[in-house]
Amino acid sequence: MAAPTLSTPTISVSISVRPSSYSFADPTPPVLSITLLSHSSAPVTLFTFNSPLDPATGLNQNSFQITDLSTSPPVLVPQDSVRLRRLPYSRARRSGDDKYFLTLYPSTPVTVSAGFATGGGEGWRKPQPKHIVKKGRVVDEHGNPTSARRGANGIGVDGLESGKRYKVDVNREKLGTVWWKWGEKDDILVEPGDGNWNLSEVEKGEGLVIWQIGEGMEFEVL
Fold first, then answer.
1. Looking at residue 117, what DSSP letter applies?
2. What is the pLDDT of residues 14-68, one digit of tens each?
3. Which of 29, 48, 69, 146 could disulfide-link to 165, CB 3.0 to 4.6 Å?
């Protein structure tokens, strides 16, 4: 499909946390969801890795900001980030990066979700309250500190405090670096073994996406 002659895409972004209350006694974290809606007249494809558009990886890279609403004035809550060493992004079909190419079609909302904790809550340690997290040690299944070190701030609900209200917002700066291109995912991907697999060598769309970001979502830690 030939790329249309269009201006930069305009995309609405809304955020939600369900349920809107969380207890550290819960076995799993609440679900953080991002809903995207393209206002353009043609399909546009985004590479979502490590951005707010993929909450599971974006949470590890400070793609969301949490504000403590129980203080006066409200203050941002420090969040840990996870350092990653990896190969360049690949646009090869069935590669590890294939799943991070997301096509938005005109006026068709798409929702992406993950657990509101480190790594999207999948296969990671259970969230812990601030007084435990700040010690910088992983705890065992009985809550006892181990010798393994961890970040002392937390990610998502991990590291927050019971009895407080918070608000989570999309980090606007992280949206500014999102790779995009007019067309569908299949127009961009290449077959395995193709020498042109490196995404950084592919010409992306001209200009920056116009993001229309909705209000943040309030939630409570019980």
1. B
2. 999 999 999 999 989 999 999 999 999 999 999 999 999 999 999 999 999 999 9
3. 69
Neighbour-count burial of 129, counting CB atoms closer than 10 A to its CB (0-12 exposed, 13-18 middle, 19+ buried): middle
**Cβ atoms of 50 and 142 closer than 8 Å:** no
And the tokens for 49? 């890795």
Instruction: For residue 135, give Cα distances in angstroms to 16, 128, 150, 164.
Output: 30, 11, 9, 20
Q: Which tens digit of pLDDT belongs to each residue from 178-194?
A: 999 999 999 999 999 99
Cis upstream peptide for 4 (omega within 30°): no
- Of the candidates 208, 177, 214, 212, which has an alpha carbon nearest to the alpha carbon of residue 38? 212
Nearest to 117 by CA among 155, 153, 74: 155
pLDDT of residue 5: 58
**Considering only CA atoms, which of 20, 208, 219, 188 is closest in space to residue 92?**
188
